[in-house]
Amino acid sequence: MVSSSSSACIGEQLCRAADLNVGDVFSQQFRLIHKAEPPLPGRTEHQLGVWRLETGPKLPVAITEFAQGSGHAAFMGVGVDRDGNVVTDHVLKAKVSALKTAEAVADYMAHCAGRYAFVIILDDVERLYLDPVGSLGAVYDANEGRVASTLNLVLHRPVIENQSYPLAALAAEDKARFAFGHTADQHVRRLLPNHYLDLTTFRETRHWPGEGDIIEPDEAQQTALVTGIVKRLEQIVAALANHTEPVYLPLSGGIDSRVLLACARPSLDRLTLFSHAENQQSRKDSRIATKLARRLGQNILISDPLRTDPDRVVDPAWLKRTDDAFRIATAKAALPSLRYELVWSLPPGGLLMRGNVVDFLKAVLWRKGTREYTNGTEHSINFGIKMMNLSGWDPLHAHPEIRAEYEAWLSSLDGMASKRIYDLSFTEHFLANGLGNTYYGHTNNFYICPFSDRTLLGAANSLPPDRRIDLEYTQAIIDWRLPEFSKTPFTRPASTQRVANLRAAERQIFTLAG
Fold it and tell me: Which range, of 9-13, 58-62, 92-96, 289-293, averages the lowest pLDDT?
């Protein structure tokens, strides 16, 4: 039970009731407050003007001052800047000293790749920003003037059911999705990626994409964009591989991990490959992954709890503690027990790279929406909402509130961004509520998506979505950087067939060289 009022946040109260260590459960989370509140146990405190930043023991943080102590910049998480440097105290101090203004510093940090959030407190600028897909998420309670990573960390009272979002009750049980910044609580909002939060007014303002961030490229520009994607992704992976150890790279028979592997090839000697198996499909993935690793002369860790005794957890007490910790850390429904065994099967510590955001190179949310692109027709709001996959049924006609929210969000996009609606919807309403919350429960390692980078997303979103769906660009990257695997089948027969169709097409297939 959670008391109706307490100086402790809900998360701390729940941890006490479950006999869990608060520092462990919220080890990768942060809280930003300016009222006189007792600090959470096991946290590091940083004073940023009138604001107090609390960070968990497993959340990296870099902090520096502006000139003459006029303000602070704080970078939480792991990010790789455009020069290929991981953001540390030393790197951040040098950049803030050289850039000087809040806007220049914000632009520098916003164009880092990785999983992060950052705060700038300077003169009349007090802002919080997120990484491009909100994978280090944040929620805020404007009434209380409090920001935190997750719902249970921001609230000091019981949840007030959200009456403004028609799917809130279903979404709270993982039977539907939250979107448009809604959470289970009426007064707590999720900060949308590519928007900053003004900490004085608690209003959100879009800051990306700007003019020129997304273009409509001709063939030569497409080649430059994809070449740039490969070089930037190679730079990011190399920076992460050199920054710490271990750094885990997932490998499967799928497209995303193969693209990531292609761009990680120069850094393989500093990476640990792994694959998870839990059913027939993923076991096939692991078999393909093993073949790929062996052909590259690399070892690979395979975890299959159902078939390998060392990976199997038989201690019900461990499973209960892990389940309790995940639910408290994320305020989400429990995972299947097998999922806990897989997530905690690797040795603890280090970074765990994920290929999720490579999805943009495949235009995953476009599907039939490509007709709008190829035919140059007006965007269908009905279809746009349907593609958001908010629930197992179409909520459009039953809930006009959702249409109104979609139209309001749509109005924030202009220029070329308004031609890539499905990409930005996937970023701001799907990934932010998924990765941005769930990863906080996976505290064994620090999860990070190397493709979470505004330079990469701008380039990927610029590429014609119909050609992305045909896998032209992903296959071109594999052909260029992993040529020996060009004809290796994917786990999904549909992907293998699509590439075969591509090669058999009469027109010239997209290629890279050099």
Answer: 289-293
Contact between residue 31 and residue 148 where contact means Cβ atoms under 8 Å apart = yes
What is the residue-averaged pLDDT of the chain? 92
Neighbours of 292 (CB within 10 A): 23
DSSP 8-state secondary structure symbol assigned to residue 305? T
Would you say the pTM of this structure is higher than 0.85?
yes
How would you class 202 by CB atoms within 10 Å of its CB: exposed for 0-12, middle for 13-18, buried for 19 or more? middle
End-to-end alpha carbon distance in the chain: 62
- Is residue 228 packed enough to be buried (19+ CB in 10 Å), middle (13-18) or exposed (0-12)? middle
Question: What local confidence, expressed as pLDDT, does residue 1 receive?
Answer: 43
Q: Which residues contact 55 (CB under 8 A, 6 or more apart)?
A: 29, 30, 43, 44, 46, 61, 76
The pairing of beta strand 272-276 with beta strand 446-448: unpaired
Here the tokens at position 89 are 């105290």
pLDDT of residue 96: 94
Side by side, the strands of the sheet bearing 188-190 are: 44-48, 51-55, 30-33, 146-148, 139-141, 188-190
CB 113 within 8 A of CB 351: no
Element spanning 28, H or E: none
Question: What would the pLDDT profile of 394-416 be if each residue is shown by its tens digit?
Answer: 555 568 899 999 999 999 999 99
313-317 long-range contacts, CB within 8 A, separation 24+ = 313/337, 313/340, 313/341, 313/344
Residue found by looking up tokens 């850390």 in the block: 329
Q: Which of 163-167, 189-193, 501-505 has the lowest mean pLDDT?
A: 501-505
**DSSP states of 7-19 as a string?**
SS-HHHHHHHHHT
Which residues, in sequence order, are bridge partners of residue 19?
none
- The gap from C-alpha 275 to its chain's centroid, in whole angstroms, comes to 20
